[in-house]
Amino acid sequence: MSSAREYQALVRALDQLPGIGPQAALRCARWLLQQPQNSLLEALQAAQRLQQCPRCRRYWQPQPQVEFCCNSDLGHADLLVVVYDDDVEAYRQQGYRGRFFILHGLLSPMQGIGPKQLRLSELVTVLQREPVARIGLCLPSDVEAQTTAYYIRQLIQRAELPIQPDVMDVDTTAGELPWPI
Ligand SMILES: [Zn+2]
């Protein structure tokens, strides 16, 4: 493969990122190629070490004899559904000690992100395995978040889980809790 083809392959790979168009993918590729090789290698190695926790889907580095990253909240009756890994800290800082489920994105038909891409059925699996009393859908107030919240509510209803989800229009950057602690 010639270097030009490799360059195009890099741009195409970056173009797959949600919300990145061909022009932004080009800018990202140029930026990446200007970084020292060592720092790129370190970033890639760190990414390779990380896995999603099978329970909350937070990124973590698995350790021997530790099944989940979130063992400390085992048995807790509250669960917050948040969009990104970083949202977890915002809620923990406010004293929330319950469980989390991280979506890693929102439904966006325009960008080809459907329930399959977000693996939303895993939420039902998690809830069936370890039931909760209440769920807070802590999503932003935009259209994609509302679509995602609606889909999750339907998913929970269809699975006939004994939960009434509290659908909250919470700005995740503020990290407001859907109920008082
Ligand atoms: Zn976890």
Structure description:
By secondary structure, the chain is an alpha/beta fold. The chain folds into two domains: 3-49, Helicase, Ruva Protein, domain 3; 52-169, Dna Topoisomerase Vi A Subunit, Chain: A, domain 2, CATH 3.40.1360. Helices cover 41% and strands 13% of the residues. It has helices spanning 3-15, 22-34, 37-49, 87-92, 115-118, 121-129, 143-158; strands at residues 51-52, 59-60, 78-82, 99-102, 134-139, 166-169. The strands form two sheets. Strands 4-3-5-6 form a four-stranded parallel β-sheet, covered by helices on one side. It has a two-stranded antiparallel ribbon with strand order 1-2. Helix 4 (87-92) links the parallel strand 3 (78-82) and strand 4. Bound molecules: zinc ion. Zinc ion is lined by residues 53, 55-56, 58, 68-70.
Task: Present the secondary structure layout.
Elements: H1 3-15, H2 22-34, H3 37-49, E1 51-52, E2 59-60, E3 78-82, H4 87-92, E4 99-102, H5 115-118, H6 121-129, E5 134-139, H7 143-158, E6 166-169
Parallel strand pairs: 3-4, 3-5, 5-6
Antiparallel strand pairs: 1-2
The structure holds zinc ion.
